[in-house]
Structures are given as C-alpha cells and as structure tokens.
Design goal:
By secondary structure, the chain is α+β, with helices and mostly antiparallel strands. The chain is built from two helices and twelve strands, in the order αββαββββββββββ. The mean pLDDT is 86. The strands form two sheets. Strands 1, 2, 3, 4, 9, 10, 11 and 12 form an eight-stranded antiparallel sheet that branches. The chain has helices at 3-43, 70-73; strands at 44-48, 63-67, 81-86, 89-97, 102-106, 109-112, 115-116, 130-134, 139-143, 161-162, 166-175, 181-182.
C-alpha cells in the first residue's frame, strides 16, 4: 500500500472519531437537558412563597421545591406541608387532620378526636376557636402555621381538601441559601 493511501485512511479514521466524539458530546448535553426538564417541570416544581401564612417556617420570597410525584408513592400525612388547588389558586398549608378524624380548635390549640395535637416540632401562632369538624373520607384538614392568616380549612369556602386537589408535597427550601431545608 502506498504511503499516501495509508495517510488518507488514517486521516479519514481520525475525522470519523472526531465526529463521533462531537456527536457523543452533543448527545450527552441533550440527555442532561432532558433529565433537568423532567426533574424541574414534572417531578420537582419550583415555587416562590408570596405570603406569610406559613411563617415562620416559610417566609415570603423564599423558593421551595414541591414534589409532584411523591404523593403517588406515599400518601401525605399529618405534619406534611402540601401544595393544593382551590378555585382561588394554589396554596401551601400543613396537614393537621386526616380522614375520619374530628378536628377542633380551642383557644388556638388544635385537638384531634379530643386529644391535643403536638405541634412542638414546628412554630405556630395560636389564634381563635373552631367548632368540631369531621374530616370526610379522601380529604385532609389543613392549617397555616401563621393562624392569623385564615385561608385554610377553617373557611367554609375552602373546607377539607380532597386528596385529588393536592398538587404535591413540599420537599426542599432552596432559597435563601442560609435556610436550605429538607422537609421529610
């Protein structure tokens, strides 16, 4: 074989390998973008808190990630902070009452089936009273931690939240950086 022919074959192979590396790099970038889109547009939805109804746990201006898939893996439980929808929009509140329970608020303290609810693991502003409410099957009773802000299950227009209105469970506070928190 002539030297010139060998050189052309070697240059052709080198060009083929360069093109394959470029295509591999482009494929990697496209897969990374697809995975990030899946994570941030389908699984974990970023949300900015716009009110003080969950203060001091969540403050206005903070950014949180809401797990939209987790509600299908594990049913939300008492103490979980959930994102739910009503006719007035999306809201974030804490679950305090589960299906079949009776929720009552006396002097600002929550009672579940006449037993005081232990809210010591999170900070709550106590306010007001509420006559006993039985939580229907397939629904939960939600309250904000700042009980002075009253767009929660205490209002007849909101009431108990059906499980199918729960959009997701709050998982992570990502901003501000000094308050990054994982909510289990």
């Amino acid at each position: 074989m002539s030297e010139q022919r060998k050189r052309r074959r070697t240059e052709g192979r080198a060009r083929t390998y360069r093109n394959a590396r470029r295509i591999g790099w482009l494929f990697s970038v496209l897969v990374t973008i697809a995975v990030l889109c899946l994570v941030f547009f389908i699984w974990l939805a970023p949300l900015r808190i716009i009110d003080e109804s969950m203060a001091p746990e969540l403050k206005s201006g903070e950014v949180v990630l809401c797990d939209r898939v987790g509600k299908f893996v594990r049913m939300p439980e008492r103490g979980d902070i959930v994102l739910f929808s009503t006719g007035d929009g999306l809201f974030i509140k804490r679950i305090v009452g589960m299906p079949g329970e009776t929720v009552e608020i006396v002097a600002g303290h929550v009672f579940i089936n006449s037993i005081p609810l232990d809210e010591s693991s999170y900070s709550v502003n106590y306010v007001g009273d509420l006559a006993p409410v039985e939580v229907p099957a397939g629904s939960v009773f939600v309250l904000g931690d700042n009980r002075e802000e009253m767009y929660d299950s205490r209002l007849a227009s909101v009431g108990c939240i059906p499980f199918d209105h729960i959009e997701g469970v709050l998982r992570l506070r990502v901003s501000p950086f000094n308050r990054i928190t994982y909510f289990s």
